[in-house]
């Protein structure tokens, strides 16, 4: 049984690595509109990003099926991760902090674990996560592909406005200054201060100034 689980875990990890087609698949990149993407190694991690958030249904930590449509009308931070992914684990404290930060109270954080359910539940026993966690193995991979990520690198995070439009997808470890740039722009979109195309440009420029920590 243990051997079968290990083989299954290796199969999922291998599928992600092969799909990325990169020497390393922890690539930091902000994906905006398809025509705005630059060429280069990170391009291999990109496919056609949909304009609107796809409908995805996965089980939560209690085994209850949850659909992203449950949060219609709210801007979302949708973080794809796995327990075996070190950059994913490093992001969690920052995401926990965002989840309880009053200035970002309008945003709902959804963590989608592409991993074995047993491993995720065991991990949650020692690392509390203060936001909704959905879990999927092959279903999790299918959810990632629904966001346009045919070549999957973990972690990656999709940000949507309250209308469900994808403002950006950030591939690689997300740091607080980057999250603040993105969330500020989306907040202005939802307030009617910015149009989404302008916000995407603003995000791109902001991430150029704040590429990491």
What would your notes on this structure say?
This protein has an eight-stranded mixed beta sheet with strand order 1-8-7-4-5-6-2-3. Helix content is 38%, strand content 18%. It is built from six helices and eight strands; from the N terminus they run αββββαβαβαββαα. It is globular, with a radius of gyration of 16 Å. Mean pLDDT is 83; it is low at 16-46. It is an alpha+beta fold and 213 residues long. β2 (57-60) and β3 (65-67) form a beta hairpin. The longest helix has 19 residues, at 2-20.
The rounded Rg comes to: 16 Å
Rounded mean pLDDT score: 83
Oligomerization state of this entry? single chain
Structural class: alpha+beta
The largest beta-sheet arranges its strands as 1-8-7-4-5-6-2-3
The total count of helices amounts to 6
- Describe the largest sheet: 8 strands, mixed
* Strands, total number: 8
Note the gap between the termini. Answer: 41 Å
The residue ranges in which pLDDT falls below 50 over 5 or more consecutive positions are 16-46
The portion of residues assigned to helices is 25-40%
Strand % is 15-25%
Shape: globular
H/E element order: HEEEEHEHEHEEHH
Q: Concise description?
A:
It is built from six helices and eight strands. It is of the alpha+beta class and 213 residues long.
List keywords for this structure.
eight-stranded mixed β-sheet; 8 strands; globular; alpha+beta; 213 residues; single chain
């Amino acid at each position: 049984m243990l051997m079968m689980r290990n083989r299954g875990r290796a199969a999922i990890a291998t599928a992600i690595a092969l799909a990325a087609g990169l020497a390393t698949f922890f690539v930091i990149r902000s994906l905006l509109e398809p025509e705005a993407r630059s060429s280069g190694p990170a391009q291999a991690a990109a496919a056609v990003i949909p304009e609107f958030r796809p409908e995805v249904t996965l089980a939560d930590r209690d085994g209850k099926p949850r659909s992203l449509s449950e949060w219609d009308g709210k801007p979302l931070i949708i973080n794809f991760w796995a327990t075996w992914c070190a950059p994913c684990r490093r992001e969690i404290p920052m995401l926990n902090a965002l989840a309880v930060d009053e200035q970002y109270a309008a945003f709902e954080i959804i963590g989608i674990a592409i991993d074995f359910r047993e491993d995720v539940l065991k991990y949650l026993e020692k690392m509390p996560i203060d936001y909704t966690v959905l879990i999927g193995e092959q279903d999790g991979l299918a959810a990632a592909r629904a966001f346009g990520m045919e070549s999957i690198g973990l972690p990656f995070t999709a940000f949507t406005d309250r209308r469900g439009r994808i403002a950006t997808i950030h591939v690689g470890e997300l740091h607080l200054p980057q999250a603040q740039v993105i969330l500020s722009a989306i907040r202005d979109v939802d307030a009617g201060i910015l149009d989404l195309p302008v916000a995407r440009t603003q995000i791109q420029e902001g991430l150029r100034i704040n590429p990491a920590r």
